Structure formats: C-alpha cells, structure tokens
Amino acid sequence: MKKFGLIGYPIDKSKSPALFEAGYAGKYRYDLIENEDFTKSYRTFLEGYDGINVTAPFKEDAFRQADIIAESAVGIGAANLLVKTPAGIKAYNTDYAGIILSIIDGVLPEGGYGYFTLYESDLTTIKKILPIIYGRKPKALIAGCGGAGKAACVAAADMGYEVTIINRTESKAEDMARLMPQYGFSTGKMEDFIRLFRENDLIIYTIPERIPEIGRMTDDDFRSKGKILLEANYRNPSFSGEMSEMMEGAGCRYISGKRWLLYQALAGYAIFTGENPDFKRMDMIL
C-alpha cells in the first residue's frame, strides 16, 4: 500500500488525515510526521513514504530540497507537496490552486465549484469578472511572506489583482517584491495594516498569529463593495468572534482557511495517487 503524510510543526490538530481518509475511503495510508526539525522529517519521508504534504514552517525548505520543480512552484519559491519519481523528488505548490479556487468560490454569485478545474479558462474568466465587479483594476493586500504568502501573491497577481505585500519584518516583503519584478508587487508597512485593509478589495491573511492592529478594527474597516478576506489559519483564526459579526454586518465575504485547505488538498491528492478524491465527502468533514 502506498503511504503518504504531512510534515510541519506543529501539526497535531491538522485536518489533513481526515480529508485524505474521506477522499479515498481508506485505500491509502496517510500519517502525521511531526517534528520541529525539517531534516529529520524529510529523512522520514525518504525512508518510508511515497509523497508528503508540507506545511509551515517547512515549505521553503521543501522547495530547496527537491530535485525537480513543477511549474506551479517555480515562481513561488516554496512547495507544499513532495513526491518521489524515477527522476528524483519533485516539488509542487498546490496552495496556488487552492487560493484561486477559494477566491472564485467567493466571487461567483452561485459560489462553489465543487471540483478541481484550474485551467486557463478559470483565470481568464475571473480576470474578466473582477474589473466589472469593482469598476477598475482590483487591489489585493497580502499579509505575510512565508510559503503561503508567496503563493498568495502570485495567485492574486495571476487573477489580475494589483498586489501590495506587508510583513512583520518589512525587509522580507521588500526582498520578495525585488526578487519577483515581473509581478510589480508593491510593499507597505505593518503599522498601516488597517488603512491598507480598507483600501484593498481582497485581503489574504497568512500570518499565523493575530497582530495587534486587528483588535483596533471597526465595522467601517470591512465595509466596501465586494470586499473578500481569505485567512490561511483555520485552526486558530485571527478574524473570529466579534470580528465575524463585524464582517457579516459590513458585507465583507470571509473565506475560511478550510476552503483553501480543501481545494489545495483536492489538487495535491490527485498528484499523489493519480486518482481524483471524493470531493463531496471531503467537503462534508470541514
């Protein structure tokens, strides 16, 4: 039986094993490989697994370790999936697909694709729809420059958003923009988070913790036509509790990291096995 798993730290509360079980009804094994040392986790993969998912803080390490880089990961510089092939270890980034499908899910009036369909037509469609919704070129704020943040920046740019990046270490955002000149990313300061949140149509929040600025936000910060907030952290979200009420009252569409997890898993599991998982069963457990 083929074996797959997840590396990262901490991952003890990850929903990935349950998603994999739902997708394949126990046909394949899927384990949590939890260790705060990437080298040890990677060795465990090499010694006993056919493929692994990769989560924080190991996505950039995984990218550097691979022998072959799939197109989905090249521009991002981070990988969330490694697979053994006859030619060596191949790295993919399915966060990119997960983000795009989550946003399409949030933008389309009917909502929800319900299957993995990331083709050029999807990007073409969303790039046509967004300027109509906003009456101009849409703008996106990406908070965080880790592996998920990098994927978010590239995905947002490919959907036609004008992208601004902020990070707690400002120089890291500047370095990221400099290393990806083809996208024309702008950078901002974390202290301006609330103003930038107001000014942008899409906010993708990938910082693991809640920054102090969030606690000072009011209803008006969430209020603008078609505003969407996608948060990566689904286990301990920063925008929860009374924030949820503010967003709902202001008309801001909140997309949980669970949708992102679902869509990136859908793409990744198919790469692992060559078989499409059962999306409906996966969706039911989230």
Task: Report what the structure shows.
This protein is of the alpha/beta class and 286 residues long. It has 2 domains: 3-94 and 261-284, Rossmann fold (3-Layer(aba) Sandwich); 97-256, Rossmann fold (3-Layer(aba) Sandwich), CATH 3.40.50. It is built from 12 helices and 12 strands. A 6-stranded mixed sheet has the order 2-1-3-5-6-4, sandwiched between helices. α1 (16-24) packs across α11 (257-273) and α5 crosses α11 (257-273). The chain is globular. The model is unreliable at 111-120 (pLDDT under 50).
Distance between the termini: 26 Å
Largest sheet descriptor: 6 strands, mixed
H/I helix tally: 12
Give the uncertain stretches in residue-range form. Answer: 111-120
Characterize the overall form: globular
> What is the CATH superfamily of the largest domain?
NAD(P)-binding Rossmann-like Domain
Count of β-strands: 12
Short description:
The protein has 286 residues and is α/β, with parallel strands linked by helices. The protein is built from 12 helices and 12 strands.
Give the topology, please.
Blueprint: E1 3-8, H1 16-24, E2 29-34, H2 38-48, E3 51-54, H3 59-65, E4 68-69, H4 71-74, E5 81-85, E6 88-92, H5 95-107, H6 120-134, E7 139-143, H7 147-158, E8 162-166, H8 170-179, E9 186-187, H9 193-199, E10 202-205, E11 228-231, H10 242-250, E12 253-255, H11 257-273, H12 279-284
Parallel strand pairs: 1-2, 1-3, 4-6, 7-8, 7-10, 8-9, 10-11, 11-12
Antiparallel strand pairs: 3-5, 5-6
